[in-house]
Amino acid sequence: MAKIRIRLGTVFDDPEFFEVKMNCTKCGKCCLNTQMELLPEDIERITKLGYRLTDFAVFDGEMWRLRNVDGHCVFLNPQTMQCTIYENRPIGCRLYPLVYDDVEGPYIDKECPAWNTVGRNEINRLGKYLPLFIGRARQTNQWVRLRYGVRT
C-alpha cells in the first residue's frame, strides 16, 4: 500500500515524525475496543485511500474516533492481528503507547505489552505534542462539518 501524503499546514502533516520508537510486538491489543481520536490529517489520508468517512469513523458527541467492528478497530484484520492501513494509520496510533492526561501529562500506557521498550527520550521528544494532538482532535468535528457537510 502506498503512503498517502497530506498537507493541511499543521505540525501533524508528517505522520512518520510521530512514530514512537519501541519494540512493538504487533499483538494488536491497542486495536481492541479502541477509542482513538482522529485528526483532520488522518481523515484526509484515509479517505484518499478510497474509504468514506462513515466507513471508518464515528462521532461520539465530542470527537471523531476510529470505528470499532466486533470489538476491534475497523482496520484490524482479526486473523492476522495486523493493521490493513498500517502505512497510513492515524497519528494517535503512531503515538501509542504514549498517552496524555491533563493532570499527569504524557506517560506510557502500561496496558501495552511492549510499554517498557519505550525510552524516556521518546516521552521527551513527543510528549510536548500530546496537548496539541488533543486540541487538534477537538477541532476535527468543525473541520468535518466544513469539509464534508456532516452535521453531528
Automatic annotation (TrEMBL):
* InterPro entries from the UniProt entry: Puta_zinc/iron-chelating_dom
Q: Which organism is it from?
A: Vulcanisaeta distributa (strain DSM 14429 / JCM 11212 / NBRC 100878 / IC-017)
Q: What is this protein called?
A: Fe-S oxidoreductase
Pfam families attached to this UniProt entry: CxxCxxCC
The organism's place on the tree of life at top rank: Archaea
